[in-house]
Amino acid sequence: MTQVIINGLLTGGVYALIVIGLTMIHGVMKIVNFAQGDFLALGLYLTYAMYLLMPPKSLPYWLLIPVAAAMFLIGCLIFSTSIKKVIGKGDSSYIILTMGISYLIQNLIQLVFGPDFKSIAVSDALRYGTISLGQNYLSVPRVIAFLAASVFVLFINWFLGQTDIGRAMRATSENRVVAESLGIKTNQVYIIAFAIGAAFAGIAGLLLSPLFLPFPKIGSQFSLIAMSAMVLGGLGNIKGALVGSLIIGLVEAFSSTYIGVNFSLIAINFVLMLVLIFKPYGLFGNKGRAA
Amino acid sequence: MQQREKIIEIKNIDKSFGGVHAINNLSFNIHKGEILGLIGPNGCGKSTLVNIISGFYIQDKGEIIYYPESGHGISLKEQPVYERAKLGIGRTFQTPKPFSDMTVFENIYTIALLYKKSFKEAKETAEEIIDFIGFSKFANEKCTKLPIEKRKLLDMARALAIGPKIMMLDECLAGLTPGEMEESLEMVKKINQRGVTILFIEHVMSAVTKLCSRVIVMEEGRYMVEGGPMEVMKKPEVIKAYLGEDYKDVYA
Amino acid sequence: MVAYITYLKKQPLAAAFILLCILFPFVTSNQYLVRVLTEVFFFAALGNAWNIIGGYGRQTSWASATFFSVGAYTGIILYTRYGEISPWISVFIGMGLSVILAIIIGKPCFRLRGVYFAIATIACATIFRQALIYFEDFTGGSLGIAFKIRKEVSLWKLSFHSEIPFYFIAFIWMIITLLIVAYIERHRLGYYLRAICEDQEAAESLGINSSVVKLQAFIISCMMMAFTGTLYVFKTGYADPNTLASHDMSIRIGLVAILGGMGTVWGPTLGALITVPLLELSNAYLQNFGGGAAGWAVYGLLIVIMVLYKPNGIIHIAEDVRNYVRKKKF
């Protein structure tokens, strides 16, 4: 049982990375990015592609900077060509746009890489390596992913709290009009927030690359997991997002172990539905007027 | 003072938002058929009260009792917003909220459909209201083209379509020129003459004086004083609430 | 009846389209094209159903595939396992089930903001698809269920030798869905939905119960999708969760309406006319360039471009053209 908890927490920690990106984007520009999971998929595929250029059996983690940078740029590109035009235009516009982008990315990936599962040929030592902890074991790639994710979470906390841009972001997410009147360049804030969100998703993809066999539509799965965690924690709430991802990780671990691998997706979505029905503003969200 | 029939009884209402005590033990009555003015400095809780009566907020303490017919009173607490409208409580908003993509006629027709059994009746009601409000010339224009004073009138017209017993007008004169204000005041009078009680929330004192037989003054969420408009506005505590200590003799 | 004839007189394009569709299978010997057009009709019908809640109501639902497959699976299970029950009967059972499901999903979610509804529909669709795979004894799991080859010709059992009967069945159903959408647009539900979209607070303050209105629209939409699903499964002869109940299918259905024109009567039909042949063509001719994926990528790109420049859909380009032509005449 402890093993299940450990697995769940480790996975949840990595999910935190993609959820934080989603939460930041929503917090700052009030847009739920339905393509966030596909940004993770892009990170996975970029890692796969760049990995082919590296000496075999090396660690994929060396690719962190190029993948993060590439995703940051892709995020800027996507934002400036499309997302920025639908900010403030109502829910259905951005839902359709980001779903369209998700669809586009998935099919572009399939065009370039083909529809089959790919595998990043890391060494077996990495993929199957374990560290033992008493009666339980920790899977090495999961631990590395969890630690890296934690570093980034701490980074984003520092960024939002201590840097000028970070504070500007928080101000804009509170009240855009007031922020603008204080001289904050909200357009810059938006594009940076979105690009960071994309980059974080891409990094999560890289960290998960030894663990998953990517296929073009894998993004949808992660989008759903990310949105579940975000709704659980309360839209726009970073602390909540963290707790949400850990809970989702645990739900996944428990349901695949005790009920069946196919059931984990049902379990996660079931939890999501329960949250939407009983606590729609999440565990930490603010109550406003309903709807 | 004759004992007039109540339409709404506000009893010891309390409402807080987080740390802010927006309404504090507020009590007063609204009488059937009157135009009651509700005044007070910004932030004193007037709009919050309208939101509570119409159902957008629920009071923390106290009761709101609504008397649509003589004798039989309904306590308003759990009813959602749309149910209160169905009971005959209408309101407008500080910033007008038209159904922009629809024409003027469609705006009113949509609501009339809710309250009339046949399409023909709804159409007749909508046309009657458009006539009454004076919008016949542009009944088929989309609301996006309407200037602000017409949008405010449209809000009132739409609320008329519910067949209200009481209409709460939240600063319906804000942003209008003096000429436009005259027109709107005329309209409010005409609506009242149809038998609709009016709760008139305003800052424009001349309007309040012209229209209201009685005025209630609020300050910081509390009931301060009530009376005829002229007498209330001369009271020093009212002047102080609006303008601060130093201002004397506002009405020379 | 008179109203429809006057409509056709006023809208020559619509009349021409209907006439062409009726004549088409008799002037061509290419059964493949007939099949493609049948597919267009099915997707147009699905798009029309989606349009009621997604277009007029602006509540984008991504669970269309769920209701589509409720109809499909009901039809095929009742036929193959319970003694060849006719689709004309199982269609009603499918619709009944879809109503129940629509209430379960809709009631809690319509109280919340639009984006929560979208997320909830994705969640429910995922649960349903996984359930279809999980309960394999009943549903055939990932492999699905298929008809044995049927030799008879029977309208009652929807079994034919040529493509043409299904062509006309799909065509008639598409026309019926168009009529349903047109009716809603001109009557109470349509007005209330538009009011809620424009300003839900104002609508509520005037007496409109937005949750109930949205739920009504959703139920009608889901019933229509289930009906389409039952017809569709009898045409294709098999049902499997990864095509019929997939997230992909839900997106395709929504995008048909979105691309063509949300909140308009003919929008989804136009959308289907563009996208179904697009996918077929790229499947057939772009094999070396990724086949279907190329088509879908173009499709996705079209959506993105459309949202940015013509968010009301391609059908409004037709309006722009018409206005331009009118201006030029004077």
Please give a structural write-up.
The complex is a heterotrimer of chains A (291), B (252) and C (330). By secondary structure, chain A is mainly alpha-helical. Chain A has a single domain, classed as Orthogonal Bundle (ABC transporter involved in vitamin B12 uptake, BtuC), CATH 1.10.3470. Helix content of chain A is 71%, strand content 3%. In chain A, strands 1-2 form a two-stranded antiparallel ribbon. In chain A, a hairpin with a 2-residue loop joins strand 1 (130-133) and strand 2 (136-139). The longest helix of chain A is centred in the N-terminal third of the chain and has 28 residues, at 2-29. Chain B is an alpha/beta fold. In chain B, a hairpin with a 2-residue loop joins strand 9 (214-219) and strand 10. Mean pLDDT of chain B is 88; it is low at 248-252. The radius of gyration of chain C is 20 Å and the shape is globular. In chain C, helix 8 (164-186) packs across helix 9 (188-198) and helix 14 runs antiparallel to helix 15. The two termini of chain C are 34 Å apart. Chain C is an all-alpha fold and 330 residues long.
Short description, anyone?
Chain B is of the alpha/beta class and 252 residues long. Helix content of chain B is 37%, strand content 25%. The longest helix of chain B has 16 residues, at 178-193.
Fold blueprint:
The complex is a heterotrimer of chains A (291), B (252) and C (330).
Chain A: H1 2-29, H2 36-51, H3 64-81, H4 91-113, H5 124-128, E1 130-133, E2 136-139, H6 140-162, H7 164-174, H8 176-181, H9 186-208, H10 218-233, H11 238-258, H12 263-278
Antiparallel strand pairs in A: 1-2
Helix pairs in contact in A: 1-6, 1-9, 1-10, 1-11, 2-4, 2-9, 2-10, 3-9, 6-7, 6-9, 7-9, 10-11, 10-12, 11-12
Chain B: E1 6-17, E2 20-31, E3 35-39, H1 46-54, E4 61-66, E5 74-75, H2 81-87, E6 89-91, H3 104-115, H4 119-133, H5 148-160, E7 166-170, H6 178-193, E8 197-201, H7 205-211, E9 214-219, E10 222-227, H8 229-234, H9 236-243
Parallel strand pairs in B: 3-8, 3-9, 6-7, 7-8
Antiparallel strand pairs in B: 1-2, 1-4, 4-5, 9-10
Chain C: H1 2-10, H2 12-27, H3 31-55, H4 64-81, H5 87-109, H6 114-134, H7 136-139, E1 145-146, H8 164-186, H9 188-198, H10 200-205, H11 210-236, E2 238-239, H12 241-244, H13 247-260, H14 267-285, H15 292-309, H16 315-329
Antiparallel strand pairs in C: 1-2
Helix pairs in contact in C: 3-8, 3-11, 3-13, 3-14, 4-5, 4-11, 5-11, 8-9, 8-11, 9-11, 13-14, 14-15
